[in-house]
Amino acid sequence: MLQLLKTNIGRLRIIAFLEGLSLILLVFVAVPLKYMLGNPIGSEVLGPIHGALFLLFIINTISVAIEYDWGFSNRTTWMVLISSFIPFGTFYMDRTVLSKVERPERN
């Protein structure tokens, strides 16, 4: 895990996992607590956390796209960005795209 923190792509993968995990907790724990038991504390706590992780994911995706010269019109950039709007899409994107990206060579 510490190895992942050393690169932008590694940090993006960790944020993608945390963003997906926060969505799972929000949907399957906080929302039922709020609407079935009338206790909004889970949504009040997890909602902003999920929002912050979502924003970090977007910012880091753009950072990785710049570092890897994907460009804003590149298909990979858009696939990764769109995955954050699809429920649990960040897990799929990590497995299919981000885990296979190699470190770019610096001259």
Architecture overview:
By secondary structure, the chain is mainly alpha-helical. It has helices at residues 8-37, 41-67, 75-83, 89-96. The protein has one domain. The longest helix is centred in the N-terminal third of the chain and has 30 residues, at 8-37. It is elongated, with a radius of gyration of 16 Å. The mean pLDDT is 87.
Topology at a glance:
Blueprint: H1 8-37, H2 41-67, H3 75-83, H4 89-96
Helix pairs in contact: 1-2, 1-4, 2-3, 3-4
Share of helical residues: 55-70%
* Overall pLDDT: 87
pLDDT < 50 runs, ≥5 residues: none
Task: State the domain count.
Answer: 1
Distance between the termini: 27 Å
Number of helices: 4
Characteristic terms for this protein:
107 residues; 69% helix
Question: Outline of this structure?
Answer:
By secondary structure, the protein is mainly α.
